Amino acid sequence: MRIDNQLPGGNIIVEKIDGHKAVLKRELRDTAGNWFYWKFRAEFDEPGDYVFTFLEGASVGNRGAAISVDKGKTWTWGGVSEEDKKAETFRYHAAAAGEVWFCVCVPYMQSDWDAFMASMPEGTFHCEELCRSRKGRSVELLTWGNGPKAILVTTRHHCQESMATHSLEGMLREVAAHPNMYKEYTFYVVPFADKDGVEDGDQGKNRKPHDHARDYGADAIYPEVKAIMALAYRVKPVLLFDMHCPWLRSSTDIYTYFVGQENPRIQAGITAFSSVLENESPASFPHHSSDDMPFGVSWNTSANYKQGKTLVMWAAGLPWEPRAQSIEIPFANLRDLTVDAAAAKEFGAALARTILKVI
Ligand SMILES: [Zn+2]
């Protein structure tokens, strides 16, 4: 078989290929320390059982590899045994020769966004350019509606956190399907806050000197972050909502949760939103407010923010006192429940309904 990273979001180092077995590593690029993102294509010369093993740290999530046999249009989980997961290994049975794409998560790329836009009736959304990325890519800004309550929603401050964008698409589909219900709102949406990282397949998390999600404030270095701050000042959102995905597979990566904030006014808004979302969330993607992570617990301590402010922390200081919140949306499972792109979209619809009730 042959393996390479020549696909959108590609990220792989091939250490060795021996017959039907491959030994692989992730490309860390400018990430400090370790992170878990990888995505590659394999070309099989013959049908059979293939084995992929990763070196150097956690790489295989709770449902194994996401697999696409249609060059990234659709993805399914391959599944994994506990034994293989511990060995950072997944297996694939190729029914025929040909090209198959593999990824640690269910990707959401520029092509998925374009397909989403193309699937909607002409004129549903207004799309413009927020800014150019550092590599010159056009960064999307979508707007919907013209109501007095501005809502600013972002995903991919950490570029590989794809389930957040699947949920975002679900939110937008829900809003667009019920224009009268949402007529009090104007949505401003930045789907790819680290546009280059998404398309290039970077880890994104813990970039040196800091990543996009720690860039908020006067000394911002990323054009997307500067543009999002300018947009916020221009439209004065009543809610700034930043959507993320957690780590790969630890005991705190298997449920949705809001990231608790030190600012009591911001925290009160989060608590109110989370309790309504608990009732709105679907059986396919349940949310329990008791899973929310208070400030000061687990990784959510001041030590985590030494490199800089998040969007939410920055928004807490805005003079018009908006609500601000960030949520973590797992990649593969909510406890025993396996989740996929469709389920994430149903969850996104619940987020929209919660905005309607709370904001
Ligand atoms: Zn994140």
Describe this protein with a few key phrases.
single chain, 359 residues, alpha+beta, Immunoglobulin-like, Aminopeptidase, seven-stranded mixed β-sheet, five-stranded antiparallel β-sheet, 8 helices, 18 strands, 25% helix, globular, binds zinc ion
Question: What's the topology here?
Answer:
Blueprint: E1 2-4, E2 13-18, E3 21-25, E4 39-44, E5 48-54, E6 66-68, E7 76-77, H1 82-86, E8 89-94, E9 98-103, H2 110-119, E10 126-132, E11 138-144, E12 149-155, H3 162-177, E13 185-190, H4 195-200, H5 223-235, E14 239-244, E15 257-258, H6 264-280, H7 311-315, E16 323-328, E17 333-334, E18 337-338, H8 341-358
Parallel strand pairs: 3-5, 12-13, 12-14, 14-16
Antiparallel strand pairs: 1-4, 2-3, 4-9, 5-8, 6-7, 6-9, 10-11, 11-13, 15-16, 17-18
Helix pairs in contact: 3-8, 6-8
Bound molecules: zinc ion.
Description:
The chain is of the alpha+beta class and 359 residues long. The chain contains eight helices and 18 strands. A hairpin with a 5-residue loop joins strand 10 (126-132) and strand 11. Helix 3 packs across helix 8 (341-358) and helix 6 crosses helix 8. The radius of gyration is 20 Å and the shape is globular. The model has no long low-confidence stretch (mean pLDDT 98). It binds zinc ion. Zinc ion is lined by residues 158, 161, 213, 244.
Write a compact overview of the structure shown.
This protein has 359 residues and is α+β, with helices and mostly antiparallel strands.
